[in-house]
UniProtKB/TrEMBL annotation:
Species in which this protein is naturally found: Adiantum capillus-veneris (Maidenhair fern)
Gene3D superfamilies according to UniProt: Tetratricopeptide repeat domain
GO BP: RNA modification; system development
Name the UniProt record assigns to this protein: DYW domain-containing protein
PPR repeat start and end residues: 169-203, 239-269, 270-304, 371-405, 472-506, 507-537
Keyword Repeat: yes
Alphabetized Pfam families for the sequence: DYW_deaminase (PF14432), PPR (PF01535), PPR_2 (PF13041)
GO MF term (any one): zinc ion binding
Record domain DYW: where: 704-771
Length: 775
């Protein structure tokens, strides 16, 4: 028996294949006997859908409910995948018109098809006819109805059905909890668990494990303790699997004393239990205690296995603690486990999470028998560290070596495509997924949406979003982020409202996308309201990026006092250089010398040097003498100029063309510069450079502005009307922005530029950013 699953009463397939049961033709058995045959007297087992569908076909072949269905339609109804729509629609139509009596096994097959293909309306019709036939209390059909509503996303209908019938077996409750978990309704999962206890329905192991998993993942310590208490009441704490889950839950919730208590109350601790406790301490940063437990388990005669070291390495990976990770690597070397595919993959993952892709590659190369998981971990390490080109080259090598990519591999490759803006390969991977055995689940769909969004194809991202059978929080966030990156403010805010109406709770990432978009669009009122509601309505504590967005927005709008108050309200321990430097620049631009001095002094106190020490040096000079602000501003502008000159990439015909400032390696650079000169001369005659200071035009150097070089090359190298997609590793400068705007107008092209902070979509002489970035 598979707990938590849904299935049918065992029936020997050979009897069905002969069309007889106990010597009688199946089609002539009395209906009462068939009802008895289809009524499970014990929890059903999985794997018998096809058998029951074949039984139902032979029993009902000549009945009026199947009138109008051809033989091939009947065969489709018995197919395990239940993938054909037409036969079931004919069947439902016949039921509506003839009010025919139907065998429970046929309804079971129909519900399973509706669940697997997310067809809600046929499922609702099937439920209606089950009620008409008085079969709603049939244990198998009751559970399949719950599963169908859950898989189709109609959770309220499923819960109403469950509560109305008051089933005493735990299977239906487990199915409903699973559906809520898959859709991210955490409160509802635990609410159902508590309702079971109120109704005195004893939870089984699966129920308790589901509840503990939810509590651990979402840091719900109080609920976890209540679940622990109920496990004791039903005598499940002594179950080793439940005890291990309790230790894991307490570890994820940071309650290590409780985890240790569960461990010590176990009559005998095996290696799995030790591993759970080691992982719990490691995840909470107690590295030394994890090592002590590692030594203690050996002293008590429990020899560590590969999973022990995987637990230690995974703890290092989750905390991104490189020093401790290297020490764990030494332990692995001492045990001669580096060549183990399991431990070696954990090393690759650890180094990838710690930002060391080269070290990850070294560990990867030392694994003699690489499996798909190992290859995927290395591709993911490259993708996580923005090494998109290396990730894609490794994917090619993986297939050449004969390894078969799985769903996780495709997700990692799509992440790499997003990082490197490789739209053509991303589209090929999408096509492979559609033609493969993999279904378009939420994880794959969300990754595809992210790839299309970051590559400038928000229309493709929306098409995938609309087709997702189940939308979790990550998929909503990906679609909102795609709209936000493209400056499609109205669509993003509408989707955000729809998300809340669907009872999907936004998280910190949702608000980062929305506030960033409002900041770039200059929506002061909307941003401030969202910032306030974030904690008021959803209890989401603001983080650095949220404050940066609001400060940037207020500073660009000239509301310097409000921005300064927001900065000063933050404890200095939580304050980074970014918002202070933003306001420093805004005060300088508006000649607010006192504000500039205050921000320089604050930056001097909180500044940690950042990635560019010249920023802190500028603040030091400003704090030393207010009369040197002009000099500081000039030096800061030079730093900014170095940033905006970063390299540009454009992919044409499967080849990447790269442009760097003053780099003359491109064979067509002379032609590009001549064409660019023609375009900029035309712009000057038309007065499009009027907003650029004359002194900047006098020193204008084409070869410094890689964005306009890449765009000009794209226009020269592609047929009229073809969109251009460009990637820049730093922010687009005002001059490039103006020139590319003009290019999109005179050539009637769509030009998409993904720069260091956002995505610019140029069309008909305007940009999605509405020039707010240059306010």
């Amino acid at each position: 028996m598979v707990e938590g699953g849904v299935g049918f009463v065992p029936v020997e397939k050979r009897l069905v294949s002969f069309g007889r049961y106990k010597g009688k033709p199946l089609g002539s058995l009395p209906s009462g006997y068939l009802r008895w045959l289809a009524s499970p007297v014990s929890p059903p087992q999985q794997g018998h859908y096809t058998i029951w569908a074949q039984l139902a076909k032979r029993v009902l072949r000549n009945r009026s409910a199947f009138q109008g269905l051809e033989e091939q339609d009947l065969e489709k109804l018995t197919h395990t995948e239940f993938s054909s729509t037409a036969p079931w629609n004919k069947f439902l139509h016949n039921l509506d018109t003839l009010k025919t009596c139907v065998h429970p096994a046929t309804f079971a097959s129909l519900l399973q098809w509706c669940a697997s293909s997310q067809h809600l309306i046929p499922g609702q019709k099937a439920h209606h006819h089950i009620l008409l036939h008085g079969l709603e209390h049939h244990p198998l059909l009751r559970n399949l109805i719950v599963q169908m509503y859950g898989d189709c996303g109609a959770l309220d209908d499923g819960c109403k059905h469950l509560v109305a019938l008051h089933p005493q077996d735990t299977l239906a409750w487990n199915l409903m909890m699973k559906a809520y978990t898959q859709h991210g309704y955490i409160n509802e999962v635990l609410g159902l668990y508590e309702l079971m206890l109120v109704k005195e329905i004893e939870p089984n192991r699966v129920t308790i494990l589901n509840a503990l998993d939810v509590c651990g993942k979402h840091n719900l310590l109080c609920k976890g303790r209540l679940t622990h208490h109920s496990a004791i009441n039903v005598d499940h704490q002594g179950d080793g699997v439940v005890a291990n889950a309790l230790i894991t839950m307490y570890g994820k919730c940071g309650s290590l004393d409780d985890a240790r208590d569960v461990f010590e109350q176990m009559p005998k601790s095996d290696v799995v239990t030790w591993n759970a406790l080691i992982a719990a301490f490691g995840q909470n940063g107690l590295w030394q205690l994890s090592l002590s437990l590692h030594m203690q388990m050996k002293q008590e005669g429990c020899f560590p296995d590969e999973i022990t070291y995987v637990s230690i390495l995974d703890a290092c990976a989750s905390l991104s603690t490189l020093l401790e990770g290297r020490y764990a690597h030494v332990l692995v070397l001492a045990m001669h486990l580096e060549s183990s595919v399991v431990v070696g993959t954990a090393l690759v993952n650890m180094y990838g999470k710690c930002g060391m892709p080269d070290d990850a590659r070294q560990s990867f190369e030392k694994i003699p028998q690489k499996n798909t998981v190992c290859w995927t971990a290395m591709i993911s390490a490259y993708a996580q560290n923005k090494c998109g080109k290396d990730a894609l080259e490794l994917f090619t090598l993986m297939e050449q070596e004969g390894a078969h990519p799985n769903r996780v591999t495709f997700v990692s490759v799509l992440d790499a495509c997003a990082t490197s803006a490789n739209l053509s390969l991303g589209e090929k991977i999408h096509e492979r997924i559609k033609n493969s055995r993999f279904t378009m689940d939420t994880k794959v769909g969300t990754t595809l949406m992210n790839m299309y969004g970051r590559c400038g194809r928000v229309d493709c991202a929306k098409a995938i979003f609309d087709k997702l059978p189940v939308r979790d929080l990550a998929s909503w966030n990906a679609m909102i982020a795609a709209y936000a990156q493209h400056g499609q403010v109205k669509q993003a805010l509408q989707l955000f409202d729809e998300m809340k109406q669907k009872r999907v709770r936004p998280d910190m990432i949702t608000y980062v996308s929305i506030l960033s978009m409002c900041s770039r669009a200059g929506l002061i009122h909307e941003a401030c309201e969202l910032f306030t509601s974030m904690e008021r309505d959803y209890g989401i504590a603001s983080v650095e990026h949220h404050h940066n967005c609001i400060v940037d927005l207020l500073a660009k709008a000239g509301k310097l006092d409000e921005a300064e108050h927001l900065i000063q309200d933050l404890p200095e321990a939580r304050l980074s250089d970014v918002p202070v430097m933003t306001l420093f620049g805004a005060c300088k631009n508006r000649n607010d010398l006192k504000g500039t001095e205050r921000m320089a002094q604050l930056l001097f106190r909180v500044g940690r040097g950042g990635k560019d020490p010249s920023i802190l040096m500028a603040a030091i000079r400003a704090a030393h003498s207010i009369h040197k602000v002009a000099r500081v501003a000039s030096e800061s502008s030079e730093v900014l100029m170095k940033n905006i000159q970063g390299k540009c990439l454009i992919r044409l015909g499967g080849r990447v063309h790269q442009f760097r400032p003053h780099e003359k390696s491109h064979p067509l650079l002379g032609d590009i510069c001549r064409e660019l000169t023609r375009l900029t001369s035309e712009m000057q005659r038309a007065g499009h450079f009027s907003c650029i200071p004359q002194k900047d035009l006098e020193v204008f150097d084409q070869e410094e502005h890689t964005g306009m070089l890449a765009a000009t090359f794209g226009l020269m190298s592609t047929p009229p009307g073809m969109p251009l997609y460009i990637t820049k590793d730093t922010n687009l400068c005002a001059v490039c922005h103006l020139v590319i705007e003009f290019m999109s107008k005179v050539t009637s092209r769509k030009i998409v530029v993904k720069d260091g902070s956002r995505l610019h979509r140029f069309q008909n002489g305007s940009c999605s950013c509405a020039k707010w970035d240059f306010a």
